[in-house]
Specification:
single chain, 299 residues, alpha/beta, D-Maltodextrin-Binding Protein, domain 2, 5-stranded mixed β-sheet, 14 strands, 38% helix
């Protein structure tokens, strides 16, 4: 029986996406092409590999055994092909990165613009999301997150200076309601919170006093998953909000917002580029790592 490498690649993608539609989007082909590839592979092997319903796709026992057997082999093939491809003088290929929406300095434009100008044969695919997930399972080469949320089995390198979170409000709001002298006064104020999606509780407002961390339940009267909306409302005087200093810096410089309770907001380690441990890091990722290290040294 000849080996259908293309069909196996499609099968592995379907197994990880648990969806023919999602698999077709990752592979850049039609759903019909994915379905036909799976059917041909099943006919060639003489056994059902996936079980399809109107809502989802599940692996059969045979499918699960095949997936567990071929997934590491495909990784080895991919690594070998990348190693051969790196013999070319110019790094190339698709580099997929997931980045936290609050990684302001990484996303603000000049950093990545200079990178793509330096390496024109590399195509960047950047997904901005605050969801936490396995970047390997989702097909990403690397991610950018705060160090505290990165899994310990990842390799991580700093890509920002120390960060800090702070409370801000508009001069108009502070003039009308006064400025809190201590974080425990915040529940008496109108506050606006942020969360990545409706299934997650709003982020906690955390502070430090006498080297002890504590959180305040502000019971926000406005909650959103859009940082821009939160900032616009704060600038308009709708209440106080809490977030990364870098996010608010331009608005503070224009006197649209004023920082509050700064003595309770010490700095902490910032953002890291992280990626899985590999025997051979792909050249497209390696040059990004070297580029970011050089920028860190320069700044």
């Amino acid at each position: 029986m000849t080996t259908d490498l293309a069909g196996i690649t499609v099968f592995v993608t379907v197994a990880e996406a648990r969806s023919f539609r999602a698999a077709s989007e990752r592979l850049g082909v039609t759903r019909s092409a994915v379905s036909q590839a799976i059917r041909r592979l099943e006919e060639r092997m003489g056994v059902a590999l996936v079980q399809r319903t109107t809502r989802s796709v599940h692996l059969t026992e045979a499918g699960e055994r095949l997936y567990q057997a071929v997934r590491p082999a495909l990784d080895d093939v991919s690594t070998a092909m990348e190693a051969v491809g790196e013999m070319r003088a110019q790094p190339s290929g698709m580099l997929r990165i997931t980045v936290s929406s609050i990684a302001e300095r990484f996303l603000n434009g000049p950093l990545l613009a200079a990178f793509v100008e330096t390496y024109p044969d590399i195509r960047l695919d950047i997904t901005v999301t605050d969801e936490e997930f396995d970047i390997v399972a989702e097909g990403f080469d690397a991610g950018v997150r705060l160090g505290e949320v990165i899994e310990q089995d990842m390799i991580a390198m700093p890509v920002s200076s120390k960060q800090r979170q702070m409370v801000v409000g508009s001069p108009d709001y502070v003039g009308r309601h006064g400025a809190p002298a201590h974080p425990r006064e915040l529940p008496k104020h109108l506050c606006m919170g942020w969360r990545p999606n409706p299934q997650v509780a709003p982020y906690r407002w955390e502070f430090t006093e006498s080297r002890r961390d504590f959180a305040v339940d502000v019971n926000p009267h406005v909650t959103t998953n859009d940082m821009r909306v939160m900032i616009q409302l704060a600038c308009a005087g709708a209440g106080l909000t809490f977030g990364m200093e870098e996010t608010f810096r331009s608005h503070i410089a224009r006197a649209e917002l004023v920082p509050l309770l700064e003595e309770f907001c010490p700095p902490f380690p910032g953002f890291y580029l992280y990626y899985p441990t590999r025997r051979n890091v792909p050249l497209k990722l390696r040059v990004l790592i070297d580029y970011l290290r050089q920028r860190q040294r320069d700044t």
